């Protein structure tokens, strides 16, 4: 519980990285070992997917929400601050991956030594490659009976043009060679680019609503948010700021009356010290649409509030007001896939105690008729 002096970590000793992989290749297990080795959490057999904090993640055994953690590691006498983001592997949550990569300078690409390269391995590699991030290939599960790391190394070299000698063979479950991964992060991933003389500029890459904080008093420092898409400025009082130095990742607590006041992708800066906005994120493209209605219309406002708070945490869901003769007033929601829709509905029930009617999912399509008329 001791107070950390964050001024000990200049930009040169900061590394921001994500762990990316196909589903079930061992990202969260590797994150557990990294947290243990750096002393962020104590070593115990009960440490399994500690960054998967949501109830739905625990029940399904999958990562749904990207989670960040700060690790402190001493390498060759120098103290380093490593900011890690553990990302989902399922295609339905790929927006979480692309959003996380915008806050990083490098990635650990985890590949299962048994399964080899799979669909999301390729998709996530190209997300990192397009973002021009340093890529550290890691072959996991070498302790399995059917593991064939040599075959996987050749796959990585053939598909991604990464030499086989750059691959690190590990067992995240047993902790084999995981220390090498930490050393490689420091050697290969560059520190964030920034100038300490410039005014404060930060990217909002995640946000959440806290049930237990209640109303945060409107005092403290005055910050502004600038949205790239609209160039609209919104200023807000901030009571707690947990980042003070260039290149660091942190959080702030603001006394906001509406959850829509700050959006993911906005640029944060000090009041009356304007800056050029950061690029933000590409908006997600929904693939599956479903209607959502309260079981009882008297619950409409409560459900509206719950939807606003949950979409603050999952900004890839699109929400449009809708109404049905049979079901009354509701919304038409857009999701990235069927699993995404199931998980969103489950989170509404578990985190906000909301029972809803969800219509059968559909996708919009266009048909070219013989008369050359276009319908939607």
TrEMBL record:
Keyword entries, A-Z: GTP-binding, Hydrolase, Membrane, Nucleotide-binding
Any one Gene Ontology cellular component term annotated for this protein: mitochondrion
Gene3D superfamilies: Elongation Factor G (Translational Gtpase), domain 3 (3.30.70.870), P-loop containing nucleotide triphosphate hydrolases (3.40.50.300), Translation factors (2.40.30.10)
Pfam families documented for this protein: GTP_EFTU
Ranges where the Tr-type G domain occurs: 12-193
GO terms of molecular function: GTP binding; GTPase activity; mitochondrial ribosome binding
Protein's GO biological process: positive regulation of translation
Name assigned to this protein: GUF1 factor
Biological source species: Sapayoa aenigma (broad-billed sapayoa)
Originating gene: Guf1
């Amino acid at each position: 519980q001791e107070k950390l002096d964050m001024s000990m970590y200049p930009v040169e000793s900061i590394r921001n990285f994500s762990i990316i992989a196909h589903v079930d290749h061992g990202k969260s297990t590797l994150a557990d070992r990294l947290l243990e080795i750096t002393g962020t959490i104590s070593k115990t057999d009960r440490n399994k997917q500690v960054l998967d904090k949501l109830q739905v993640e625990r029940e399904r055994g999958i990562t749904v929400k990207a989670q960040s953690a700060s690790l402190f590691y001493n390498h060759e006498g120098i103290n380093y601050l490593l900011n890690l983001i553990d990302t989902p592997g399922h295609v339905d949550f790929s927006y979480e991956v692309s959003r996380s990569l915008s806050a990083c300078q490098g990635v650990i690409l985890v590949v299962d030594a048994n399964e080899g390269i799979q669909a999301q391995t390729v998709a996530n590699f190209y997300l990192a490659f397009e973002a021009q991030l340093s890529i550290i290939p890691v072959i996991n599960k070498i302790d399995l009976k059917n593991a064939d790391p040599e075959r996987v190394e050749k796959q990585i070299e053939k598909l991604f043009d990464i030499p086989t000698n750059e691959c690190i063979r590990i067992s995240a479950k047993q902790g084999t060679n995981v220390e090498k991964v930490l050393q490689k992060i420091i050697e290969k991933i560059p520190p964030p680019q920034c100038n300490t003389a410039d005014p404060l500029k930060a990217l909002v890459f995640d946000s959440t609503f806290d049930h237990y904080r209640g109303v945060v008093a409107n005092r403290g420092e005055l910050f502004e948010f600038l949205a790239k898409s609209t160039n609209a400025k919104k200023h807000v009082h901030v009571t707690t700021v947990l980042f003070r130095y260039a290149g660091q990742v942190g959080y702030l607590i603001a006394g906001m009356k509406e959850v829509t006041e700050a959006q993911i992708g906005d640029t944060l800066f000090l009041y009356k010290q304007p800056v050029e906005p950061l690029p933000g994120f590409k908006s997600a493209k929904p693939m599956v649409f479903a209607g959502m209605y309260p079981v009882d219309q008297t619950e409409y406002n409560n459900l509206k509030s719950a939807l606003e708070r949950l979409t603050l945490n999952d900004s890839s869901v699109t929400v449009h007001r809708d109404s049905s003769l049979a079901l009354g007033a509701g919304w038409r929601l857009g999701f990235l896939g069927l699993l995404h829709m199931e998980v969103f509905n489950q989170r509404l029930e578990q985190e906000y105690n909301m029972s809803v009617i969800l219509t059968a999912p559909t996708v919009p399509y266009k048909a070219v008729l013989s008369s050359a008329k276009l319908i939607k």
